[in-house]
Amino acid sequence: MTADLAQLTRILRKPLELNAKTGDRILIMTDTNMDPLLWQGLRNAANELGMEPLVTIMNPRATHSTNPPDAIRAAAMSDDVDLTLYLTSTAMAHASITDEFIDRGKRFILMEELTPSMLSDDGPASADYFALNALGQKIAAVFSAGSRVHVTCPNGTDLTASIEGRAGRSIAGLPLIMRPGGGGGCAFPDGEAHVCPVEGTGNGVIVFDVTAHNVGLIETPMRLVVENGWVTSIEGGREAQVWRDLLARFEDRNNSNCPAEIAIGLNPRVTPTGSMRTDKKMYGSSHIGMGDTMALGGTCHARLRLEGVIRKPEISVDGQVLTRGGDILLDDGTVGSMRG
């Protein structure tokens, strides 16, 4: 679509209406790799809703999971700020700033890697987030009650891990408390249900075939071997080499922790574009992470957090199948019927 500030402003009212109220002070963290129309649209939307927007612009971070500069971090932690928006070209959901937000009881919205095209009238931002969350809650309940998760796919994926004692969550554009007594957040555009498996329990093979962090759309599938909770090899073409280079550059044993997350995408309005912001939310898909787990209630603190997407996995918990062939079996048709 041709970017239009008035249209972007109208659409960007939605995450603010779901997560803030009149009189709130909103901090927008952005960087020079993001389209300026996005922060301008958020600023205008906040003004229209009687909120006070503050905009900070930084240079892009070196990698995903890297904190903003100290001055911006301090501003975000101020008692005067009610809600912080991550409008950045790199994902900071698993940077330590997010852990600090949660510990301090502060609110945030993840909008990393957002583009104007994602905000079209029939795009992922237009989904019914209340319906997505209702479906996500069903999946989250199964994760929370489960002991073992199994992910398979005709592309070669075959992974198991323990989820004993780990909480499932629905992340669907609505405020969510991440830990008891702590702060909370969501994402936008959004739509996933996830669980953080127990560290050290993952075994098998993961094959990403849609999109991955730092590489965009995948041409040659990426094959990860996981042994006792660690990625021991990453095979494939250009995409695999990008990840191997990142792991070598930012050396940290914990970067190879896997699976750091197993998630099911809920959003029926997603068409893959190469951006993890939306592609990992695609209905019936799964994204699996490696590296840091602290923001999800895990115990692994790592320098990096990397994720990739599987298009049509079969995911089961203790034998109950949740997804198969791009469909979510717990869906009564309400969400799946929104697919174009």
Descriptive report:
With 340 residues, the protein is α+β, with helices and mostly antiparallel strands. The protein has helices spanning 5-19, 36-48, 70-77, 96-103, 129-145, 238-249, 276-279, and strands spanning 25-31, 52-58, 83-87, 107-110, 148-152, 158-162, 169-171, 184-187, 192-195, 203-208, 211-212, 216-217, 222-227, 230-235, 261-265, 286-291, 305-310, 314-317, 320-324, 327-328. A hairpin with a 2-residue loop joins strand 13 (222-227) and strand 14 (230-235). The radius of gyration is 19 Å and the shape is globular.
What's this model, at a glance?
By secondary structure, the chain is α+β, with helices and mostly antiparallel strands.
The largest sheet, given as strand count, sense and whether it forms a barrel, is: 8 strands, antiparallel
Helices, by number, come to: 7
- Chain-averaged pLDDT: 93
Q: How many discrete structural domains? A: 2
Structural class: alpha+beta
Distance between the termini: 17 Å
> What's the assembly state of these chains?
single chain
What order do the SSEs take from the amino end to the carboxyl end, as H and E? HEHEHEHEHEEEEEEEEEEHEHEEEEE
How many strand elements?
20
| Shape verdict | globular
How much strand? 25-35%
Please give the share of residues in helix. 10-25%
Strand order across the largest sheet: 14-13-10-6-5-18-19-20
Low-confidence runs: none
Key features?
340 residues, alpha+beta, Rossmann fold, five-stranded parallel β-sheet, 7 helices, 20 strands, globular
What's the structural blueprint in terms of helices and strands?
Blueprint: H1 5-19, E1 25-31, H2 36-48, E2 52-58, H3 70-77, E3 83-87, H4 96-103, E4 107-110, H5 129-145, E5 148-152, E6 158-162, E7 169-171, E8 184-187, E9 192-195, E10 203-208, E11 211-212, E12 216-217, E13 222-227, E14 230-235, H6 238-249, E15 261-265, H7 276-279, E16 286-291, E17 305-310, E18 314-317, E19 320-324, E20 327-328
Parallel strand pairs: 1-2, 1-3, 3-4, 4-8
Antiparallel strand pairs: 5-6, 5-18, 6-10, 7-9, 9-15, 10-13, 11-12, 13-14, 15-16, 16-17, 18-19, 19-20
Helix pairs in contact: 1-2
